[in-house]
Specification:
This protein is an alpha/beta fold. It has helices spanning 19-31, 49-58, 82-96, 116-119, 135-146, 157-177, 187-198; strands spanning 7-11, 35-37, 62-66, 105-110, 129-130. A five-stranded parallel sheet has the order 2-1-3-4-5, sandwiched between helices.
């Protein structure tokens, strides 16, 4: 399966409030030598979302699941169950799938480390990591986890976060070179800018 051993499926919210965390995770995953996979890859509204999720889970050895969104939706006054559902699918693939699915590994994130015991107590025993809705903390958690999945020597989380801040600072100029604007970037365009910038010698502090 192409790139299976380097693919990291990301299960998280995609709203504006989470954008800074999402972008920090994306940057960190690629900085650590892995490939981020998420449902933003699919822009065909005719496709069935759950089938896309299953495809991504199947094609990824690793996955990151942020289950921190447990509040009620402002419009409908209902909770969001997408993230726990996708985590359950990944766990099921590991437990009941055939090789190489049985070798899947997960990182579970929460904004408050022990809050999950209130709303999803079946996860007790899992080493859930806390990020406090802070991009710097989430970079460290993702970097530290991925450092155990590679033989490469990785910079510390604080160093990678400084690189990320540098990338964000030059992002408008990178967009200008392609006649793009930051606010109108598509997901593939943003990923391409991250990958190309990381490939530059001057991207290292």
């Amino acid at each position: 399966m192409k790139d299976y051993d380097y693919s990291v499926f990301l299960n998280c919210p995609f709203d504006d409030d989470y954008e800074s965390l999402f972008n920090a995770i994306l940057f960190t995953v690629h900085r650590c030598g892995f490939i981020l996979r998420c449902s933003k890859e699919f822009d065909d509204n005719s496709s069935i979302r759950i089938n896309n999720i299953l495809k991504l889970i199947k094609e990824s050895k690793y996955s990151i699941h942020d289950i921190s969104r447990v509040g009620l939706d402002d419009q409908n006054d209902l909770p969001r169950f997408n993230m726990p559902l996708e985590l359950g699918l990944a766990i099921g693939a590991q437990k009941f799938g055939r090789s190489p699915q049985t070798k899947k590994q997960f990182l579970i994130l929460e904004s408050e480390r022990y809050r999950f015991k209130i709303f999803i107590s079946d996860l007790s025993g899992q080493d859930i990591k806390e990020h406090k809705d802070d991009p710097k903390k989430i970079v460290k958690q993702v970097r530290d986890w991925l450092s155990t999945k590679t033989k490469e020597t990785l910079p510390s989380g604080s160093y990678i976060f400084k690189e990320y801040e540098q990338f964000v600072k030059v992002l408008p100029d990178l967009c200008y070179e392609n006649s793009w604007t930051v606010d109108e970037l598509t997901y593939p365009e943003y990923v391409s800018l991250v990958i190309n910038w990381l490939a530059l010698d001057n991207s290292k502090l």
